Prior knowledge:
The protein is α+β, with helices and mostly antiparallel strands. The protein has helices at about 10-15, 55-65, 75-95, 115-125, 130-140, 200-210, 250-255, 285-295, 300-305; strands at about 40-45, 50-55, 105, 145-150, 150-155, 160, 165, 185, 195-200, 225-230, 235-240, 245-250, 265, 270-275, 285, 310-315.
Amino acid sequence: xxxxxxxxxxxxxxxxxxxxxxxxxxxxxxxxxxxxxxxxxxxxxxxxxxxxxxxxxxxxxxxxxxxxxxxxxxxxxxxxxxxxxxxxxxxxxxxxxxxxxxxxxxxxxxxxxxxxxxxxxxxxxxxxxxxxxxxxxxxxxxxxxxxxxxxxxxxxxxxxxxxxxxxxxxxxxxxxxxxxxxxxxxxxxxxxxxxxxxxxxxxxxxxxxxxxxxxxxxxxxxxxxxxxxxxxxxxxxxxxxxxxxxxxxxxxxxxxxxxxxxxxxxxxxxxxxxxxxxxxxxxxxxxxxxxxxxxxxxxxxxxxxxxxxxxxxxxxxx
Length: 318
Ligand SMILES: [Zn+2]
């Protein structure tokens, strides 16, 4: 499962390796050779043991295992495999400021999770053989396939879940034509903990925000502290005034460990209450949404076309 981490604009820009203003490239580089098979696509992977060159065929099953529950629908697993392949090829092409010596690392807050076979044997226990086979199959059945926009691999970011709609890339400084807010089908009935709450005492609330901005004023009663919540184009929180100062939703997410920026905030007379929808930054494919679409009969190409609108699926030559 994609771990969901507090993100800031700077972290996003760093994580994706490029200042947002440089995306997309004004002049695409000459088209690469036609898509190749996973065995022919080489990647420099950074792990705790150092940098190793491995093929996409070796990399992807273990990245897929790190990023999506093995019990998800086969078409959702295939969509995730294509997203991971696209993401890795994007990184290989663009380079990564955080680790110029490697195309991808195994930190999910930087690139994508990647877990060793030993870890998976421990994690999956007696299900290891069948789960590993599901990963291999999803990769093999999408061999060499990735998403392009203007003939280049796309920044195929993804997240765990959203409620109703995904986030628009522009809201997080990633104005990419294929990272638009789109509908997503998961509901609180289909996803456990799609809705979550975080309670904060007024003392903790004031102290946490003062640590961010010491000029905020929390001298009055708590019911006077909050200004109206500002929403972004996708309907998620963008920010609000508290103690007379502006705080972005990303900052609030980070400070109070909220599962996403799709939240509301209210004072209930005793404490501040965040009600949060979904998990993750909300960009690109929703993993739980992909699983729901697959259960409803969508294939992986349809799932990908939904979450990355306007992209094309490039199919490997055999
Ligand atoms: Zn990385």
